């Protein structure tokens, strides 16, 4: 009996939903309908009145922090020449203390000073006692000044040289390939001088 009552209530409920939807789809005549259909025309006219490429100022279109003003190129070159002149004057008079540099060499960055030793794992095609020039200089500094590169300092601005002291054989590198349960095993030994 409960099943019969539920089956009888379902068509009535479904019929009410269909009639409500059909009433909302139909456009009733009158002033309310005209205002609904004229709304897109009103928005189109507002868009056309604003200039092309205009973005209103909101928190998303402009950041909350103040805009930075970059210096003019002529002023920047004048300031650069002034700083380099002061640094050259300090070096000429010998009032700079201990110099240091950050260089990029053999895929690493090294902070070096005079008489420092660097141990690298790479193989170089130079003989012992040869002097090499480290050209990728990121930073040079002393007690009174620091010159930063963006990202590197110019070759005419700074010169860092190194001497190859020793080349010895490194430990042998063993490359092992192995697949479990496949009876596959390969062992390769590489010896190199560094």
Task: Walk me through the structure.
With 194 residues, the protein is of the alpha+beta class. It has a domain at 73-163. 33% of the residues lie in helices and 22% in strands. The protein has 3 helices and 8 strands. Strands 2-1-4-5 form a 4-stranded antiparallel β-sheet, with no helix packed on it. A two-stranded antiparallel sheet has the order 3-6. A two-stranded antiparallel ribbon has the order 7-8. Strand 1 and strand 2 (108-113) form a beta hairpin. It is flat and about 75 Å long.
Mean pLDDT: 80
* Helical segment count: 3
What's the end-to-end separation, in Å? Answer: 94 Å
In one word, what is the shape? flat
Strand content: 15-25%
Radius of gyration: 39 Å
Query: Considering DSSP H and I runs of 4 or more, what fraction of the residues is helical?
Result: 25-40%
Itemize the secondary structure elements and their pairings.
Blueprint: H1 2-25, H2 31-49, H3 73-93, E1 100-105, E2 108-113, E3 131-134, E4 137-141, E5 146-148, E6 160-163, E7 173-179, E8 184-190
Antiparallel strand pairs: 1-2, 1-4, 3-6, 4-5, 7-8
In short:
By secondary structure, the protein is an alpha+beta fold. The protein has helices spanning 2-25, 31-49, 73-93; strands spanning 100-105, 108-113, 131-134, 137-141, 146-148, 160-163, 173-179, 184-190. A hairpin with a 2-residue loop joins β1 (100-105) and β2 (108-113).
What descriptors fit this protein?
194 residues; alpha+beta; 8 strands; disordered N terminus
């Amino acid at each position: 009996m409960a099943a019969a009552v539920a089956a009888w209530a379902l068509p009535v409920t479904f019929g009410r939903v269909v009639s409500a939807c059909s009433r909302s789809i139909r456009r009733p005549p009158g002033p309310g309908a005209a205002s609904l259909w004229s709304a897109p025309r009103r928005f189109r006219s507002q868009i056309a009145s604003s200039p092309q490429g205009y973005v209103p100022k909101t928190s998303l279109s402009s950041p909350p922090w103040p805009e930075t003003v970059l210096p003019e190129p002529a002023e920047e070159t004048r300031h650069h020449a002034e700083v380099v002149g002061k640094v050259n004057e300090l070096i000429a008079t010998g009032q700079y203390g201990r110099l240091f540099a950050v260089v990029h060499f053999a895929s690493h960055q090294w902070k070096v000073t005079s008489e420092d030793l660097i141990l690298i794992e790479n193989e170089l095609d130079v003989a012992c006692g040869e002097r090499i020039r480290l050209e990728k200089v990121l930073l040079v500094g002393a007690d009174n000044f620091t010159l930063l590169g963006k990202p590197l300092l110019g070759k005419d601005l700074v010169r860092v040289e190194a001497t190859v002291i020793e080349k010895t054989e490194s430990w042998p590198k063993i490359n092992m390939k192995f697949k479990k349960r496949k009876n596959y095993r390969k062992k390769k030994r590489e010896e190199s001088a560094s």
